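Structure, all two chains, one model.
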Amino acid sequence: MSSTISSTQIQSELNTEPKPLDASYGKLMMWFFIVSDALTFTGFLISYGFSRFKNIDSWPIADEVFTHFPGLHGIDAPMYYVALMTFILIFSSVTMVLAVDAGHHNQKDRVAFYMFLTIIGGAVFVGSQAWEWKNFIKGEYGALETRGGMIIQFVDSENNKRLALKDFASYNPEYREQHKSSNGLWFQSESALPNYSLEEVKTGFLADPSIVVRIEKIDEKGHKIILNRDQSIEKVMQGVYVVEGANLIRNEYGNRLFADFFFFITGFHGFHVFSGVIINLIIFINVLLGTYERRGHYEMVEKVGLYWHFVDLVWVFVFTFFYLV
Amino acid sequence: MEQNTEHKLEIFRGLIKFKSNVQKIWGVLIFLSIVTAIEVALGIIKPEILMSYFLSMKLINWIFIILTLVKAYYITWDFMHMRDEKFGLQVSVVITLLFLMAYAVFIFLVEGNYIYDIMYEGFVSWNF
């Protein structure tokens, strides 16, 4: 007919080649990638475990850090939000595997429909993670950092409830402004200042005798140790820095490494979800264009499916080691 | 091209056998949801009885880790269709990962624990 070779011809050539382990070339390569990527995540989670074992008696308690749920303000809702995120990701995994199954039966419309649902699920998950990050970075209570780099948090001694800095910090009109390049030396600037100065926190603390502090150390029952008033005053006087929220250097939840690992592990996973959504989108467009219909099979959907399930699989582990254990 | 549409439809070693692949997917979803719900419930309630230590880790944490591995198994085997692959492929993926992960977990956690001991018993104050 013509001298050019159609893509279906090439495809059938490829399919007659001997297949190791009865899996196609593409699928085998995807498994190679998954194994190596799994080891990358292992490296991350292992270093998290290492740091945690190293600071086993002072690690932050996840239940006290992740307590937000959309629409519930001021209500302690540990675990619920991250459980919801887990369900979203598992469900998008299910729609993905349904798309793969529809592909096996060459049903173009069903593949497209399920791919679409998968993309939506992935996007919702990335969005949820962004919200989680926002709460984590913003922080809720605020804390002081001592000379030794330890975090002390404030507690009401009457009901053992956490106190936010804004609940007791005094007001000092002399607190200076942030040095931006627009209002000071034009070639210098500094990062955002906390809402309260060290002096304001210390004065406010001394003025109210019912405030005590809790330190990073954990007692036998797994609760943070709360000091009495005299010890608390001593600790607060050692404070050198007001910490609000979290960044890569310090965070109000406790050990500095905790926030670093949170950002790196959930960030790396979130990046995987994001790229998964993009890849799914490309395949989805190809399905709509009929590329795989003409090719005669939907193996491409199967391959991105493998990647997508892997991302879900990683989240199962991140969920366990970051939020449960 | 002829598609391989044959799936093994049994889970729990043949205790439950599904009629079609789609049905199996929903069945596995229900199972995974139940396991996740148990994890979340345990994480919120934290029963006092599971707070005792077993092999230097809390019993509840052992349960979490085992349930996680169960979930990982069903995601790989049924969603990633590992159940339908050749034994050779299953082994090359799973054994490689399990060996390297178990080895890394062992050396890093032992080392972390050792550094904790040094810092705990040493004469250096880490909080001044």
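The first strand of chain B starts at residue 10 and ends at 11.
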